[in-house]
Amino acid sequence: MHPSLFLAALCLGIASAAPQLNQSLDDLWSQWKATHGKLYGMVEECRRAVWQKNMKMIMQHNREYLQGKHSFLMAMNGFGDMTNEEFRHMMIEESQKESGSLLWFLAVEKYIVTFIICFQGRCASGWAFSATGAIEGQIFRKYGKRVSLSVQNLLDCSQAEGNEGCNGGLMSNAFQYVRNNRGLDTEESYPYVARDGPCKYRPEYSAANVTAFQTIPRREEALLVAMKNMGSISAAIDASLDTFRFYKGGIYYDPKCSSEDLNHGVLVVGYGFQGKESDNQKYWFVKNSWGTDWGMGGYIKMARDRNNNCGIATRASFPIV
Ligand SMILES: *[C@@H]1O[C@H](CO)[C@@H](O)[C@H](O)[C@H]1NC(C)=O
Ligand SMILES: *[C@@H]1O[C@H](CO)[C@@H](O)[C@H](O)[C@H]1NC(C)=O
């Protein structure tokens, strides 16, 4: 199908399911479009409907926050014109690609079309950011040297280890790649372009070696021990909920967040607590890769010792350099 026909069909589907446009939000919508440099043309109305639905959900959540029903705030951000389904295809991985081949095919079409028209430069590369962050941390711990490593190198070159570039991957496969490859280029020599391309690794620009990696037993106590001994740790989480997409501050906890359905890679860089530790206000301090507009300057506090919420301890690992 021609891309513009497909998008028109997609927009009809969204708009018919969406509420009437609320004129009291017109100014906010204009501001938001200007802030994020959005130009839509014929698809503006359906994007507005999606944005408005998200905006209302965020306002409702924050009203409930003020009533003490949640431990964290949400805020509108640059992901506000996407449905949850679109966001999942754009920024996070499919955890169950094999389920339903026809649905999957449609999802891919939708992904490509939306990607080209509205959201160029988006890529499910959390796993690669998590892996480079963990390797950089271990190099600093061991050699006292700060290096910035190439995310794109991992996206383009670790297919043989089982990764799929912008479609997703595992941090452990990335560590394995660096080990097999006997090197990983610097960010400066191999910059991030957020789309798949041919492997352009050049050994003369390598700044890292990995000799092995360790996976951590799937318990939050084990994650804490590993952090105390090793510093930053790579973790896979469920990042698919709207509460996570629009997180702004406070301690993130959502009972709907899965401990098994993991779809995004992050870097756990610290831990702490607010108030009294006994109040269950403990958190993991986590670095995400969705830019500094998201969350607390790009970081999130995620609930700690609350039943492995979002699977933070389910598949955690670190490299040995
Ligand atoms: C429009 O949105 C405002 C702000 O959320 C709300 O107070 C108002 O009730 C809404 N109006 C309609 C018709 O939905
Ligand atoms: C990685 O290890 C190889 C030897 O296996 C060595 O020649 C190279 O200098 C190392 N690279 C870095 C950045 O330490």
From TrEMBL:
It is a peripheral membrane protein. GO terms for biological process: proteolysis. Keywords: Cytoplasmic vesicle, Disulfide bond, Hydrolase, Protease, Signal, Thiol protease, Zinc, Zymogen. Residues 29-87 form the Cathepsin propeptide inhibitor domain. Coiled coil: none annotated. It is an enzyme of class 3 (hydrolase). Its EC number is 3.4.22.15. It is found in: Apical cell membrane; Cytoplasmic vesicle, Secretory vesicle, Chromaffin granule; Secreted, Extracellular space. GO terms for cellular component: apical plasma membrane; chromaffin granule; extracellular region. Residues 106-320 form the Peptidase C1A papain C-terminal domain. One of its GO terms (molecular function) is cysteine-type endopeptidase activity. It catalyses: Specificity close to that of papain. As compared to cathepsin B, cathepsin L exhibits higher activity toward protein substrates, but has little activity on Z-Arg-Arg-NHMec, and no peptidyl-dipeptidase activity. Residues 1-17 form the signal peptide. It comes from the Eukaryota. Dimer of a heavy and a light chain linked by disulfide bonds. Interacts with Long isoform of CD74/Ii chain; the interaction stabilizes the conformation of mature CTSL. To the propeptide regions of cysteine proteases. This is Procathepsin L. It comes from Lynx canadensis.
